[in-house]
Structures are given as C-alpha cells and as structure tokens.
Amino acid sequence: MWATKLLLVTLLIIVVESKGKKRNTLHDYRKTADTTLTKHNKALEVKTKFFNTTENCAKRCSRNKGLSFTCKAFAFDKREKRCYWFSFNSMSAYVRKKYNTTFDLYEKKDYIRDCIHGKGSNYKGTRNVTKRGLACQSWTSMIPHEHSFLPSSYRGKDLNENYCRNPRGEEGGPWCFTKSPAVRHEACDIPFCSEVECVACNGEHYRGPMDYTESGKECQRWDLQRPHRHKFRPERYPNKGLNDNYCRNPDGKARPWCYTLDPESTWEFCAIRPCAHRIVNDTEITKDCIKGQGEGYRGTISTTYNGIQCQRWDSQFPHQHNFTPEHYKCKNLSENYCRNPDGSESPWCFTTDPNTRIGHCSQIPKCEASNLQECYYGNGDTYKGTLSITRYRLHCARWDKNIDDLKRHNSFFIFLSFFLLICILCFMYLRHTFKEPNISIIEKNYCRNPDNDVHGPWCYTDNPLVPWDYCAISRCEGDTTPLMGNLDSPITCASTKQVRVVNGYPAQMRNGWMASLRYRNEHKCGGALIKENWVLTAKQCFLSGDIDLKDYEVWLGVHNIYSKTEKHKQVINISQVVHGPKGSHLVLLKLSRSAVLNANVSQIKLPYYGCKIPEKTMCTIYGWGHTGTNNYDGQLHQGNLFIVGNEKCNQLHKGKITVNESEICAMGETSVIGPCERDYGGPLVCEENRTDLMQGVIIPGRGCAIPNRPVIFVRVAFYAKWIHKIVLTYKTP
Ligand SMILES: *[C@@H]1O[C@H](CO)[C@@H](O)[C@H](O)[C@H]1NC(C)=O
Ligand SMILES: *[C@@H]1O[C@H](CO)[C@@H](O)[C@H](O)[C@H]1NC(C)=O
Ligand SMILES: *[C@@H]1O[C@H](CO)[C@@H](O)[C@H](O)[C@H]1NC(C)=O
Ligand SMILES: *[C@@H]1O[C@H](CO)[C@@H](O)[C@H](O)[C@H]1NC(C)=O
Ligand SMILES: *[C@@H]1O[C@H](CO)[C@@H](O)[C@H](O)[C@H]1NC(C)=O
C-alpha cells in the first residue's frame, strides 16, 4: 500500500515538474535567517552585485548566468540589497556559517539534503558508498571500471568526486561505479524525503524535509504569499517549524500538509511515513507539573485555575467542539483532564459552565522552577544570565543595534516629566517609575531589564512586527515581594488638573470608548479604546492557538449591536494582537487604522502606574453580555460596583483565592451584578477628579454574579507602564 503510494508520487512529480513555468526559483533553496558563509580557502569563489530581491538573486544562481562557477548558495544583504553568490555551501570544506543579522543565507537544496524525490536525478549530495557499503569510484577515474560517464558529457548533473548520482534519471535512484573490481556499479539506497523522518501523532512535531503533497504537487514556501495568500507567515508562528516549503502541521490538522504551487489547489496533505510506534517523546510527559507549555501534561487535574469543573473531552455538552479523543489520539484526551492538544500556552479544558467555554489550568505548577531553571528576583533588573530568547521563541537582537531606540524611549519620559513638573506629585511618580535606562547592564543580545520594566527582563527582536518582548524566563518561585509597594507616598490615579467639563462631565458621550470585538460577525467580547488605534481587552477573547485576524473586527460608537441604524458606527480591522506580560490576561489590539474621535467615539484615560483606588469607590462595568438579570437584547448595559480591598476580597472568597497586586476586586451593593460571558475584555471604569479612568478589565471568573463574592478584575494600574511602552514602541504596521 505504502509502496504504491510512493510510486504514484514519483510519477506525478515528473508531470508537475515539467509544467511549472512561472514557479518562483526560491523554492529550490533552504533558507537560514541571519546567517552568511565565510571561507578560509582562496580557491573558493564569490561574486557579488546589487540586486533588489532574494528572488532575483535566486534566479541568477539557478541559471548560473554571468557566473564563472557553479552557484551552490547565495547570501542576501538585506540592508544594502546585494547578492553574494557562492561556489560552495555550508557543508563544503574550509567554510563556516557566520551569524550576522544583515544577511539571509539560501542554499540549493539539491546539494545539501540527504534524500530524494522520485528517481533522484537532481540529487547532488555527498553520499559516496553504495547500499552494501562499497566505496564509490571517482567519475573521472577509469579504474577499476572503464565507463563513459564523464562530467563533461553530463553538464548540470554534477558528476563530482565519487558521489552517488543518477545522471540519466534511471529507475533505482542514484548509483555509482564501485572501487570493488567484482561489482561494476550499484545503487546507493538514498532514502526518499518522505521516509527520512516519520510522523508521530498528528505530525505537529514533524520537521522533516518532505516538500511535495500526496498527489505530487510541489509545496509553496511558507514565507511567500504566491500562488496562495495565507496566514501562516513564519514570523507569526515561530514555534511551528514553518521553514521553506516543507510539509508541516501548524494548525492541528490530521497530518502535515502544505499550500501547493498549483493555483487550482490551495492545500493538500503530504504522504509521509508514519512512525511505527505512536509515541510521544517520553521526556516531555509529566504527571504532577507542567513542562514548557504542558503539551505532555498527563496528570488528572480537571478544574480550571478559577475552580470551574472541566467538561469531558468525549462530550459535546455544554460546549460543542472538535477536540475529540479520536481526532487527537496521542494527546490522551481522557476523562475531563486538563490537556494542551493544540499548542496553547498551558493545559486547558472546556468548562461545565455554559457561560464559560474554555478555562486554562494555570494552577498546575511548573516543573522548571524546581529544576534549577533560570529565574529572576523582583523585576529582574539584577538578572545577569545569558538567555537570549523571547517568551514566544524569537531570538533577541543585540542591544547595541537598538541603543538609540532605548535612549529615545527614555527621553520621551524625560520630556513628559518636564511638562508635568507643575504637578509635584506627578513628578515624584515619574521619578520613581521611569528611571533613566541603565545602559551599563546591557550586554550582547542577552535578556536584561535596563528600564526597570515591572514585568521582567526583555529584549529587542529582529522581527519588525515585534520590536521587543519579554524573555522566556519567570520570577523565582517564592519571590513574592510586591512590585508596586515601594512608592513613597500613595498617589492618585488621575491628574489633579481639572479637565474642562460640561454639566459635571467631560463633553462627550460617557461610554464612547466602549468597543465590541466581533468574531465572524458576532459579538464576542468587550474592549476599550485607549488610544485612537489601540484597544485593550482580555486574552480570553483570542484563546484558540491559531487566530486569523481576518475573522475579527472592532466596532466603535455603537449602543445596540443588533440595531441596523447605528449611524455613528465605525468598523475597523485588527492588524496585530500584542500579548500582555505573563499572567496578565490582557491583550492590546492594534487597529489597522485610527478611529475617528468625535462626540460618539473617544479614548478612555488610564490610571497612573501603581496608584491606589480607595475602598468603596463606586465604579461601573459596561458590556453587551448577560448583565444582571436582563435578557440578551443587544443593548450596552452597565452596572455599578464598589471597590473591595484585596484583603477583604480574600476573606469574602473564604480563602479559596488569593488576590494579588495585579488584581482588583469590586462587588455590587444590593442586587446581584457582575460580568458574564461576552462581557469579557470590557472595562471597569471609576471616576477620579472628574475623570473616567479604566481601572479594571473584565476576565472570566467563577460563574456569573454570585451574591457576596466580589468579582476579580485585572488591575490596569499594575500594567499601565506596559501599555505605554507598547503604544510608544509598536509603531510598524
Ligand atoms: C528591482 O529592480 C528592477 C530593475 O532593476 C525593477 O524593475 C523592479 O521593479 C525592482 N523591484 C523592486 C521590488 O524594487
Ligand atoms: C555583518 O556584515 C556586515 C556587512 O558585511 C558588516 O558590516 C557587519 O560588521 C557584520 N556584523 C557582524 C556582527 O559581524
Ligand atoms: C566519502 O566522503 C567523506 C567526506 O565527505 C570522506 O571522509 C570519505 O573518505 C569518503 N569515502 C570514500 C570511500 O571515498
Ligand atoms: C526528546 O526530547 C528531548 C528534550 O526535549 C530531546 O533532547 C530528545 O532528542 C527528544 N527525543 C526524541 C526521540 O525526539
Ligand atoms: C491517559 O492518562 C491517564 C492519566 O494519567 C492514564 O490513566 C491513562 O492510562 C492514559 N491513557 C492513555 C491511552 O495513555
């Protein structure tokens, strides 16, 4: 069965290869980002020229046009737009790879891979023994076997040294004459690319070299958008192995797949050898704690972090879903245990609460903490380690490349404090919160915290979409010193300077900042406009691992989300989702264009970092969900809640929950008021000095509105500096 399939692939590949005329030549190359080659032998040749695209460099390399040597690889200087064509590749003698972010290296696959498609007539690897282990005879030698396969008569077939080749494209694959007088020639048994690495489970971890689909179509490079436009851009999915055009499974399909070069057929599965034993890497399996993102967690915890019972995976009630045990055979979706079948950030489950679809089980401890894993204390400004990778696995860029940004970022705050000098309190606040960056601690591309970021060490990246991010390192276990508590004097949350008011309130609609986050044209979550092109909302609204931003939009200036006559409505797409610091439950949505601010659409003010809200302050929540006992009528509802101090909040939760400094509690006075599903992401708004401030973000809690249980919100004042830093630095589209 398997053999016939491979044979079929062989035949089809030939057909498809012969008609692909407009094919992008880059498909013949393996890319290594931020790398070039250095040679230590004068005989090795290099030619260079200004050329504006990698595609043009590749074309010339493939055709050998204007080159006095056979081009095996090229490096592209991204800054100067210059190609460097090489007569060698990273496997050649006297050649080294060199990390340099100015360059991307592209090497012709035929020369570097150790596997074949079809009959292997393009194979140009360095295998030099036959299947029985006999040494190959050099193609230029006539001893012991005389023959007519001279390199000069097989141009382009690379009959070099004594490497196995198939110059005539015959059955049996690459072969060679042998050095043994008794055996004239023999095949070399070079494996098919579909067989060198097997697929276990759903193939999420497959990183093998197969780059043709099961019907023989060549795969499209993940980093190109032609012939098919798609969302799996490698920079967006850094953990999914989306290199070149190899078959991968970034989205939990049944098997690895790829987009094809056939404009008529968007994507197809690939035929790759399944592993004999359906094993998951045993070293990843844990029972009592979570390693990495907990994909190997096989313990029996079955409640979410906030205590909601999980739904059974084999049940479709109360929530319908595709994560059935049959679809995910290796994921052990048994009973109602917390699992991570889809590469989410931690194990999760559907919950038995009909109003809460998914809950994360982040209460399961991390294994790393006890494993002498690196960690930091406080805000990590004393961290001196050599970690250089962000939490979403992007490589850190060197600080010296970004030193201007770091200084500029700081001078903004100096500028700000100049204007706020009028207000002594604000000045003290700024002096405490925005110290000058400590440039003496930055080193190479190591994670550091030169600007006293409350949320730990971070670094710049080379990804234009992600100017900087926090590093893959956690606070040391047991380090619970408050991060906000060290301000000398309690400070107010809003400027004491009066804002111009009409009838006691700012001259605008009181909820003009309220945003409806829409998923496939249905209201999914609330949110708040904090800047003309940024909305703050809850991470919960973007739970599934792979999100397609095309499915989402933001509505502003609406009251009734069902009404067709909302004449002030602004509909805006989302261009980027920026995840909040670890544990924040927050995301910032960058809008694809700025909202038009007017009487119906406005920005809400944020509180100062670290400010304290007095207990009993009356605040308001807003949402289009089931607020209180009202029916779901599409109207924006609001409810009043008063602030409960964290200690009191813990008491009222009877010790089941410990609220920390990144959280804030509030509860209804008389009736049962509290947020519910579809309210998540919306704001808790409190007035101070006649200014509305967004003090909290609604996140899923234990059920909806339970009497005498304060609702827990994300404390915006704890994340205020993060929000400012993102808005200031994430400027590229
Ligand atoms: C690259 O250069 C060629 C000619 O030198 C020009 O026609 C082409 O538009 C340029 N492409 C880009 C992407 O700049
Ligand atoms: C990277 O290459 C460029 C261009 O050749 C060079 O100017 C730069 O110094 C190199 N950087 C490093 C870190 O070697
Ligand atoms: C095969 O090539 C390797 C290096 O690529 C070399 O060390 C070895 O001697 C070669 N073997 C034969 C039989 O030529
Ligand atoms: C299993 O995982 C460990 C560490 O993550 C890795 O070193 C090892 O190569 C993996 N083994 C297999 C068979 O994938
Ligand atoms: C799944 O995990 C549970 C709990 O660890 C274990 O009892 C069960 O045997 C596992 N099932 C399979 C098929 O591995």
Automatic annotation (TrEMBL):
Keywords: Disulfide bond, Glycoprotein, Growth factor, Kringle, Membrane, Pyrrolidone carboxylic acid, Repeat, Secreted, Serine protease homolog, Signal, Transmembrane, Transmembrane helix. Residues 501-728 form the Peptidase S1 domain. The chain crosses the membrane at residues 412-430. GO terms for molecular function: growth factor activity; serine-type endopeptidase activity. Residues 24-110 form the Apple domain. One of its GO terms (cellular component) is extracellular space. It is found in: Secreted. Residues 114-193, 197-275, 288-367, 374-476 form the Kringle domain. InterPro entries: Hepatocyte_GF, HGF/MST1, Kringle, Kringle-like, Kringle_CS, Kringle_sf, Pan_app, Peptidase_S1_PA. Residues 1-18 form the signal peptide. Disulfide bonds join 198-275, 219-258, 247-270, 310-349, 338-361. GO terms for biological process: animal organ development; hepatocyte growth factor receptor signaling pathway; negative regulation of apoptotic process; proteolysis; regulation of anatomical structure morphogenesis; regulation of multicellular organismal process. Dimer of an alpha chain and a beta chain linked by a disulfide bond. Interacts with SRPX2; the interaction increases HGF mitogenic activity. Potent mitogen for mature parenchymal hepatocyte cells, seems to be a hepatotrophic factor, and acts as a growth factor for a broad spectrum of tissues and cell types. Activating ligand for the receptor tyrosine kinase MET by binding to it and promoting its dimerization. Activates MAPK signaling following TMPRSS13 cleavage and activation. This is Hepatocyte growth factor. The lineage of its organism: Eukaryota, Metazoa, Chordata, Craniata, Vertebrata.
